[in-house]
Design a protein that fits this description.
This protein has 179 residues and is of the alpha+beta class. The chain has helices at residues 2-15, 19-22, 155-175; strands at 27-31, 37-38, 44-49, 59-63, 71-77, 80-85, 92-101, 108-117, 147-148.
């Protein structure tokens, strides 16, 4: 009986640990949204992270409809990452790539996503011979939607919970006298 009480107490102790304390940082939301549409070229791209990022270790690259890099500056505020966009950015299919270091658990999270900006693009604003293209798709156009390399699945709490349940079952079986 005593073992059962200890096992149940251990289970509830592990179960009371918040999943956010055990999970890694990830992208909760973005503006413009992942896979969404914007009616005009945005002034900035905002990433809403699940944990506070370290500004000095945060990188964001945004490519406009002409596949040109268009980030002027990157800053963080609480759990938000702001990438200010250059004025000559063009409509079309945009790609956002990011990497952050969590100030809370020290883990790195990276990912990418796409959104569309409506309007007619003019890729001639970029000087001839520069790196961008005048094609319809940014590089890696086969990638669709979000590709967040972090995971929202709470692996650690699930493993702890499963281990606790197996332990409780073993203790209960041992207490009942069955081999």
């Amino acid at each position: 009986m005593r073992r059962t009480v200890v096992a149940v107490a251990a289970f509830f102790a592990f179960a009371s640990i918040p999943a956010t304390a055990l999970a890694h940082a990830g992208l909760n939301e973005a503006d413009p949204p992942t896979g969404g549409k914007a009616s005009e070229v945005p002034d900035d791209v905002v990433l809403f992270m699940s944990e506070t990022p370290v500004e000095a270790a945060t990188e964001v690259a945004v490519f406009d409809g002409c596949s040109e890099p268009v980030v002027e500056s990157v800053s963080t505020h609480n759990k938000e990452v702001h990438a200010e966009i250059l004025g000559e950015a063009q409509p079309g299919r945009w790609r956002v790539e990011y990497q952050t270091l969590s100030a809370e658990d020290g883990h790195t999270t990276s990912g990418k996503y796409r959104f569309k900006v409506t309007g007619t693009k003019d890729c001639s604003v970029f000087a001839e011979g520069e790196e961008g293209t005048d094609g319809d798709e940014p590089p890696d156009a086969a990638d669709e939607g979000t590709d967040d390399e972090g995971s929202d699945f709470p692996v650690v709490p699930v493993v702890i919970g499963a281990g606790a349940l197996i332990g409780i079952a073993a203790l209960a079986r041992g207490a009942s006298g069955k081999p």
